[in-house]
Amino acid sequence: MQKGNIGVTTENIFPIIKKFLYSDHEIFLRELVSNAVDATQKLKTLAAKGEFKGEMGDLTIHVSLNKDSITISDRGLGLTAEEIEKYINQIAFSGANDFLAKYKDDANAIIGHFGLGFYSAFMVAKKVELITRSYREDAQPMKWTCDGSPEFTLEEVEKADRGTDIILYIDEDCKEFLEEERLSSLLKKYCHFLPIPVAFGKKKEWKDGKQVDTEEDNIINNTTPLWTRKPAELKDEDYKNFYRELYPMADEPLFWIHLNVDYPFNLTGILYFPRIKSNIDLQKNKIQLYCNQVYVTDSVEGIVPDFLTLLHGVIDSPDIPLNVSRSYLQSDSNVKKISTYISKKVSDRLQAIFKSDRKDFEAKWDDLKIFIHYGMLTEEDFYDRANKFTLLKDTDAHYYTFEEYQNLIKGEQTDKEGNIIYLYANNLEEQYSYIEAAKNKGYNVLLMDGQLDVALISMLERKLEKSRFTRVDSDTIDRLIVKEDAHASELASEKQEILVSVFRSQLPKVEKAEFNVEAQALGDNVAPILITQSEYMRRMKEMSRIQPGMSFYGEMPDMFNIVLNTDNKLVKDVLNHSETACAADLTPLNLTLADLNKRHNELHQAQEGKKPEDITTADKDELEHVEKQITEEKAKKETILSNYAGTNKVIRQLIDLALLQNNMLKGEALNNFIKRSIELIG
Question: Is 663 exposed, middle or buried (CB count within 10 Å of its CB: 0-12, 13-18, 19+)?
Answer without folding.
Answer: exposed
